[in-house]
Design goal:
heterodimer; A: 6-stranded mixed β-sheet; 5-stranded antiparallel β-sheet; 11 strands; B: about 120 residues
């Protein structure tokens, strides 16, 4: 079973601060995805990283895939209250291309 | 973009009854569908993977006789929670993927079903 450890589990910051969320595994993933989920809704895909060492930017969000494709990070610059939500990393792997989710990081950005 | 519709969005049932949740791909053929369960403020736990026309593959610890999954067509998969009990109360989410899947293929998620068993 491929496991993804996500940290921190909870994060409460002030608007304007920067933050980083980490996603680590002992397994190699073919690709890794980051999602954001709001209460009562399904997850929404933010990005997919495929190549080891890859860095992708989505406005104030920067995603990095580790060289060994075992870990990833999400960095948010100048957080806004609208960034509040549950951030999930998920890795693709296995014969059925299953998506395995990390435990999630519940981010609260206070005004 | 691809749309997955999940129904109902909320359901309340009495203990001992069965509840069926539907997951439909509206504008693509979903060869594979995944069912997840999510507790409040926690991550998604994969329950089972279903491929159209074949039996679902359940994750370890998930009772296949309690959570019946049917994927009879390329646009519809159903999850039936049989003889529901209060501990089955949770948020159930489906996701779907089209054919020709690779490790980069996107999954399309439904908006989830909030099940409350009283």
């Amino acid at each position: 079973t491929q496991l993804l450890e996500q940290s921190p589990q909870f994060l409460s910051i002030q608007e304007g601060e920067n933050l980083t969320v980490y996603c680590n595994s002992s397994s190699v993933f073919s690709s890794l995805q980051w999602y954001r989920q709001e209460p009562g809704e399904g997850p929404v895909l933010l990005v997919t990283v495929v190549t080891g060492g890859e860095v992708k930017k989505l406005k104030r969000l920067t995603f990095q895939f580790g060289d060994a494709r075992k870990d990833s990070s999400l960095h948010i610059t100048a957080a806004q209250t609208g960034d509040t939500g549950l951030y999930l990393c998920a890795g693709f792997g296995g014969s059925n291309y299953k998506l395995t989710f990390g435990k999630g990081t519940l981010l609260t950005v206070n005004p | 973009g691809a749309v997955v519709s999940q129904h109902p969005s909320r359901v309340i049932c009495k203990s001992g009854t069965s509840v069926k949740i539907e997951c439909r791909s509206l504008d693509f053929q979903a060869t594979t569908m995944f069912w997840y369960r999510q507790f409040p403020k926690q991550s998604l736990m994969l329950m089972a993977t279903s491929n159209e026309g074949s039996k679902a593959t359940y994750e370890q610890g998930v009772e296949k006789d309690k959570f019946l999954i049917n994927h009879a067509s390329l646009t519809l998969s159903t999850l039936t929670v049989t003889s529901a009990h209060p501990e089955d109360s949770s948020f159930y989410i489906c996701s779907a993927r089209g054919g020709g899947a690779t490790y980069n293929s996107p999954l399309h998620f439904g908006n989830g079903t909030r099940l409350t068993v009283t």
